[in-house]
Amino acid sequence: MTKSGEVHPIRPGVDTSYEAPRRLAAILAADIAGYSRLMTLDEEGTHARVKRYRRELVEPAIVEHHGRLIKTTGDGFLAMFDSPVEAVRCAIVIQQSMVGRNAALPRDQWMQYRIGVNLGDVIVEPDDIYGDGVNIAARLEGIAKPGDVFISGGVYEQIKNKLVCGYQLLGNRKVKNITEPISVYRVLPDYATLVKARSGRTLAIILGVSALASLAVAPAAWYFASQKKQSAAPQEQAAAQTASKLESAAAPQTVSPSKPEATSASPALPGTPQVAVIPPAPPSALQPIVEPEMVTLLGGKFAMGSNNDPSERPIHQVDIKPFALSKFPITVRQWKQCVAANACAGGVTGDDDDAPVTNVSWSDAQQFTEWLSQVTQKQYRLPSEAEWEYAARGGAATKYWWGDQLQPGMANCNGCNEAYDAMKPTKVGSFKPNPFGLYDMGGGVDQWVADCWHRNYQGAPVDGSPWLGADCSSHVLRSGSWRSDPNYVRPSSRNYYDTNARNQTLGFRVAQSL
Amino acid sequence: MDIGRIAFLAAVLALLPTAGHAQGKKPGKNVHLYIISPADGATVKSPVTVVFGLRGMGITHAGDEFPNSGHHHLLIDVNTALSLTEAMPHNKNYIHYAAGQTEAQIDLPPGKHTLQLVLSDSKHYSFSPPVVSKQITITVK
User: Fold this and answer.
1) I want to staple A322 with a disulfide (CB 3.0 to 4.6 A). Which of A27, A462, A480, A514 is the partner?
2) Structural domain tally of chain B?
3) What global pTM score does this model have?
4) From edge to edge, which strands make up the β-sheet containing A446-452?
């Protein structure tokens, strides 16, 4: 590593487990893009932020993934891992956490890491590591774009079947002071990047067939698609189904029963022979159904709850499995399809098809998910309360997903913005999306989740599943509505309502397990 | 406290002349809405059991359009005027008993709190004139 800035050894000479002079290791090198510019803007503030992020994000992420922080520089750090899978997971966690941290800040104050991961045989000294393997990681970091993770071909070979993720081959790159060109892959963070990447370069969508069980510890919002029950399936088929899932999860899609090609016509990913097997077409329905647009979330651990209200206590760690959540609350247009099929009742109020459906009870919402599952042959359901809060936070631990202060333009509530219409909600998607790309996760309409109401989190499940049982005559509402005051727009805020009662502010969104 | 209560009722009464809109259903005659327990001025422990009393009208599930009936809402520490043109809010201060409950357990932090019942129609709009109970004050230990 040739880095400007001071080098601080970490744990000098105390770790006896690393005495071997050489060993194979996954090396993670990271630095902050535009650090000098940030230092010029605000030297002390930037320094303090870097230190805080290191303490709050970087160091815990490395420990959690069984890595070791070798050293830190002014704006970067170097870490080593026994496992390339863990190293890349750690990189993803750090990048994702930074997205959450940046969400509330103006663009010019964003702090973004560039991360390179390489697998190499390195010389391990008690307080530093040396060798080509380290240099290549640093070079990968150097060519990575802010917010990106670049990995070498060696890492790719190790993780491609284990970490369910999109990888974009950037080709062989000649890097400074390294004789041989190295093959470089970019780990694809989210669907938007995936689409952008697909228009140009070779893209390989890889389905991990053996590492799914451990996926739950990986971070969220990076674009991963997985299908748990396929561990025995041939990779080609698995990859094809995953690719198909990418399509269905990412865009509103018309399922036409009379034309099964509607699904198979989704554009195949260039350069991927795996995309050959198409899942069976959904069975009959009378009319084409416009499915909700879904956003895939990888899940992971997060702190659920807050100390703002007794109902939100105690704050507890929850482990969320990968799932998809509709990008918007279910709209009047979508609801009308269910009504037209005689599968939903409910009082649709207002004639704006793009407004969120309101005046639905929990039972009405449940009925809608059952109908949608039936006509699409996909398992739609209400999200659990934990899933909802995880998704609403968008990776942030702050009071609101965008920070600790109220900001106009973020949510529709009574007191969130200068303009306010007391009589009806705005169209879905009228306000900014959160870092996970989800709209209206706070304000707009109250959103039913699968859980029965419990007055606080004493005894709540920690695996992200819905909390049922007890007196289930009331179900949990999340998000607050356009009529709520800003306190209810917080991602941790909880409310409830009678299960079978309708009210003008009650709506919902749908989820899918992956 | 009495001043606050009178102010609240005055505010409600002030709204009456504007109540000639589609939402404002007429309540039954000689209706009396009241809190059976706790008693006004009582000192209690949280969670507090509140029992609702109603004479002259019936209780139904929200959404059910039966004549001369409605469902309860418990207003906790609310001292603003009741709107007759907007549906009842629902939040931690406005608890709906839309399933037709006539008794509830509520969590309250220690200190003085006011409780008041309001009956609404099937769509959560207040009757006109409103059917409200006396606002009582309790102390939670």
Assistant:
1) A514
2) 1
3) 0.57
4) A495-498, A474-478, A446-452, A506-508
